[in-house]
Design brief:
This protein has about 325 residues and is α/β, with parallel strands linked by helices. About 35% of the residues lie in helices and about 20% in strands. It has a 7-stranded mixed beta sheet. Strands 4-5 form a two-stranded antiparallel sheet.
């Protein structure tokens, strides 16, 4: 009688999983180049981050990315030699995705600061995809104001063209600037990117598998924003925790940015605590949670690294895709 082979009980995964203490050991001798006062400037509103978090989570990640950048630079030089090509090297692009209020912006800014201190890539630029949202007038014309942040609210063609130009090694590429105060694109302002060593691209939907509003022309539907990434990170947390962070941030904004008469959300500045909680909870449930479930969370498995946070904002687990 032929014996049936035993199937291993362990679930297979494309990731190596590290608990916080395991990941922290991978820092090796990477020097700490940030001080407490630097973190105050880098962290987002209501996003708690400490020097310990930098040492145990972001320094190992900085070391990993530095090794990847070095390897890519060597590969690029080898390809140049083979092709007898003497054009300048193109930027290494890192994509950072995750829900609204999960702390993507802080992650992006901390990584930018750390990576810029490595000698082989001192110029690190950061772009957020907010600048590629359609202007409010376009969203209003298309009935998409309540879908702001959903994939269809972005000018994906413009974003892909921007990244294609970056990867083509153009001397300077510009992109729109978004104002959270005005809640709109600033038509007379541009961010200029001049051949950085590394470009970090941060946005909730950057790992989308398809760009839904590209139908015709030179850019095929199969072209995705993430096709231009050399490495991608997804910042993750439990839905309940992100919802709580969103409400807490809304309450803080009510007393800060919303209090500015020029703020698009100035009408929320006079809400009581209970009214602010109710309003934020409704916005979260009807817009941001829907976007998270339908569009953002399904892209998590496409990331090269998943950084999972606990209820106190600190990272509890890191998953790194196996090569």
């Amino acid at each position: 009688m032929t014996e049936v082979p035993q199937v291993p009980s362990k679930t297979f995964s494309p990731y190596n999983t590290f608990a916080r203490h395991e990941w922290a050991k991978l820092r090796d001798v990477t020097p700490l180049t940030l001080k407490e006062h630097d973190l105050i400037q880098l962290k987002g509103l209501n996003d708690k981050i400490s020097i310990a978090e930098v040492q145990e989570i972001y320094l190992p990640l900085s070391r990993l990315l530095n090794l990847y950048v070095e390897a890519t630079q060597r590969l690029y030089k080898a390809t140049q030699t083979f092709l007898n090509d003497h054009t300048a090297k193109v930027p290494y692009i890192i994509g950072i995705a995750g829900s609204v209020a999960v702390g993507k912006s802080t992650t992006a800014r901390v990584l930018q600061a750390l990576l810029s201190h490595w000698p082989n890539h001192p110029k690190v630029d950061l772009v957020t995809t907010d600048g590629f949202l359609y202007p409010n007038r376009v969203l209003e014309e298309r009935g998409l104001m309540k879908r702001k942040g959903f994939p269809e609210s972005y000018d994906a063609r413009k974003l892909i063209r921007f990244l294609a130009d970056i990867k083509s090694g153009l001397p300077e590429v510009s992109c729109p600037i978004y104002s959270h105060l005005a809640y709109d694109i600033l038509p007379d302002r541009k961010q200029r990117i001049g051949q950085p060593d590394i470009l970090i691209v941060e946005g909730i939907n950057v790992l989308q598998a398809h760009s839904p509003n590209i139908h015709k022309g030179k850019l095929a539907r199969e072209v995705n924003v993430s096709d231009f990434f050399d490495f991608s990170i997804y910042v993750d947390a439990r839905e309940a925790d992100i919802a709580q962070w969103y409400v807490e941030r809304f309450k803080m904004l009510r007393n800060t940015a919303f209090a500015n008469p020029n703020s698009y959300f100035h009408r929320y500045s006079t809400l009581s605590d209970s009214e602010a909680v109710d309003t934020a909870t409704t916005i979260w449930r009807e817009i941001n949670l829907l976007n998270l479930k339908e569009n953002i969370l399904p892209t998590r498995a496409r990331a090269d690294l998943i950084l999972t946070k606990g209820a106190d904002h600190t990272a509890v687990e890191v998953k790194l895709r196996k090569l």
